[in-house]
Amino acid sequence: MVKRIFILLLVSVIVSFCSKKTYSQELNALLFSIEDEIRLGQQVANEVEKDPKNRILDEKKYPQAYAHLRRITNTILNSGQVRYKEQFPWQVKIIHNDSVLNAFCAPGGFIYVYTGIIKFLDTEDQFAGVMAHEIAHADRRHATNNLMKMYGLGMLMQLVLGENSGNMIARVAASLLGLNFSRSHEREADDYSVIYLCNTPYQASGAAGFFEKLQRSNQGARTPEFLSTHPNPANRIQNIKNAATQRKCNLKASNNASYQAFKNSLPR
What we know:
Its cofactor is Zn(2+). The protein has helices spanning 2-17, 20-31, 34-50, 63-77, 115-120, 124-139, 142-161, 165-176, 183-198, 206-217, 233-246, 257-264; strands spanning 91-95, 103-106, 110-114. With 268 residues, it is mainly alpha-helical. The chain has a domain at 54-143 and 181-264. Strands 1-3-2 form a 3-stranded mixed sheet. The radius of gyration is 19 Å and the shape is globular.
């Protein structure tokens, strides 16, 4: 009870003295520790992987595919710019579905990528841009902000205090499977994809290359979920390129031989 009163008083102070944006950031940090976020992400991962529609590629059968995926992911994580690089487990898995152009993340660094988007893209720079975008969603704790809007302070406070937390985590995890990010979160993830890739051998505007590929291919019917809240990729392409130029990042294309090997390692 004392702990509850203390937290509620602290929340009241934040509400009274902080701007709306700062309030959201401080409140999320108060309600969800890194440990809470990882626990929540693990629950979401369990939900994803037990769904028979999500055919997780077996790493023992496709070790080369996972070696490529982790090589690319680790290059981004080791850029020196990922805030929770050491704290989050950064579990990355492949879902075997060639008809889906998508990748998504759960809290705590649990990321899933479909074979469809891997095969669709032409270069490792483009794929690195997509992965950097998803890493940014996790690293900036965007899912926590969305959960605050969906469930409100009361439910999340009970989660933090451990009251019926098991049931609540299961309910929250189920809702995260269909979570869409806001325009501001998508813009921030685009910006951070540049920040992350700027300190790697990859083309820093790799995410823009993905959008350009999407436009050229006229794949409107297969548009990924992370485009749904900001459906005009032209603005995103220009913003990403401008950010890379302003930061004086690497704009040269990297070697694509390794990416073709990645695609060849996937099931036909």
